[in-house]
Amino acid sequence: MQTQQSGVQYSRWDDSSRDEVHVAAVSSTEEASSWARISRKLCSGKLGIALKVLGGVALFWAVFILGYVTGYYVHKCK
């Protein structure tokens, strides 16, 4: 069993009212850090927004096609 440590780093800016908190999970394997890096890159920023929009459009069309095919067979004339 691998141990996993978590650390919280808190820093307060003196010139502003914004607080900054960093939470990091430290694992003994490199796989976890590479997965976190890939996840962070794909889920944030412009690339993350683009992937979410494309996923939403793909989900819309999948549900639309499924509904169309289902409706065709349900309402087909005999």
Automatic annotation (TrEMBL):
The chain crosses the membrane at residues 49-74. One of its GO terms (cellular component) is plasma membrane. It comes from the Eukaryota. InterPro entries: SMIM1 (IPR031744). Keywords: Membrane, Transmembrane, Transmembrane helix. The keyword Transmembrane applies. Pfam families: DUF4731. GO terms for molecular function: protein homodimerization activity. This is Small integral membrane protein 1 (Vel blood group).
